[in-house]
Amino acid sequence: MPPLQNDRLIRALLRQPVDRTPIWVMRQAGRYLPEYRQLRAQAGSFMALCQNPELACEVTLQPLARFDLDAAILFSDILTIPDAMGLGLYFSPNEGPMFERTITCEKDLLQLKPIDPNQDLRYVMDAVSTIRRALQNRIPLIGFAGSPWTLATYMIDGGGASKKGFPKAQTMLYSNPKLLHALLDKLVDAVSDYLVAQIEAGAQALMIFDTWGGLLTPAAYETFSQQKMAEIVARLPKNHDGQRIPVVLFTKGGMRNLPGFVAAGTDAIGLDWTADLSDAKAIVGNQLALQGNLNPNILLSSSETIETEVKKVLASYGNVHSGQGHVFNLGHGITPDVPPENMAALIEAVKQHSPQYHQT
Ligand code: CP3
């Protein structure tokens, strides 16, 4: 396997020295790009893009043609797993992701189909291998999955419930914890197999999106989210040197769970913008890399403001020791209303202002 031409992301995730802070952006392929909107209209829907490996590859590459990014991320969705298990995923223009069927009782759970990702989610694995070939080792490809808890919130509440904080999932946690554990354990199996299959298909780093972990009490978080993710990380394969590909856990409202992430055996943590990176670093020390965490709304302001705010994020991480172990990203996905030139300003600011934190 020829080496990566640009391995900044991998090096930063492993806390090795780099010349500048690497940057990629959550949802970097998406609706803020006119070429994405055009291709999606042609394909008919978001899922039609995901399920066609050539189109998924084309969409993945779209932001890379415009911007000097340090990683590509598989174009897909975390909800492909519950869809393959039989819940019937669709996207409503107003409400986002929805399911035809939800999990309310043991009978629903028994009806979930066990999945073999290489068969039931073949389109994802074909997209991964197609993208890897197209990238020609220029930059690494990130694969991903949702955390069991975050997938369960959508599977129990049926999507559209994020604004309300997924009340049915939260109620199940207290009224029927056994059922919730059984669902989460099925998802531990499915997510582990899915990530292993993505590694085999060519993913070079992994993200686990625990977007809704911050909705839980610290005690519930440990039992119902963190421990399930730790089990997944422990199941990922290691090569003959005992190394596995780097894994990033992303969470919203995750500051208070940081010590648990160290215990989960991950390499890096993605944080939202409510966290201060220097505080986070003081907790995790040199054990983990950090990814984040510019407020995505800043991309709706001017290029001057973007530059000022980028400098603050870089300084919050790098002022204490250095920028080593920092991956620049937004604190959540880029929104559809961002002008693409502001994305260019963001990347330029990171390239210009981060090298000072990487002088040895
Ligand atoms: O980051 C990337 O560029 C990779 C692709 C990616 C998508 N979804 C594409 C997408 C990734 C990594 C995801 C993860 C995902 N999906 C998460 C976890 C991360 C996060 O955002 O918190 C969650 C919770 C989902 C579920 C999901 N999918 C929601 C809530 C929505 C609707 C939100 C929205 O922006 O409309 C989606 C749809 C979705 N997933 C879109 C994209 C590009 C928009 C689809 C479209 O309308 O074209």
UniProtKB/TrEMBL annotation:
List the molecular function annotations (GO) for this entry: uroporphyrinogen decarboxylase activity
Enzyme Commission number = 4.1.1.37
Q: Name the pathway it acts in.
A: Porphyrin-containing compound metabolism; protoporphyrin-IX biosynthesis; coproporphyrinogen-III from 5-aminolevulinate: step 4/4
For the site labelled Transition state stabilizer, the residues are: D77
Kindly indicate whether the keyword Ribosomal protein belongs to this entry.
no
Record InterPro entries: UROD/MetE-like_sf, Uroporphyrinogen_deCO2ase_HemE, Uroporphyrinogen_deCOase
Q: Which residues hold substrate?
A: R27, Q28, A29, G30, R31, D77, Y154, T211, H332
> Reaction catalysed by this chain?
uroporphyrinogen III + 4 H(+) = coproporphyrinogen III + 4 CO2
Q: Which protein family is named in the record?
A: Belongs to the uroporphyrinogen decarboxylase family.
Q: Mind telling me what this protein is named?
A: Uroporphyrinogen decarboxylase
What is the native source organism of this protein? Ostreibacterium oceani
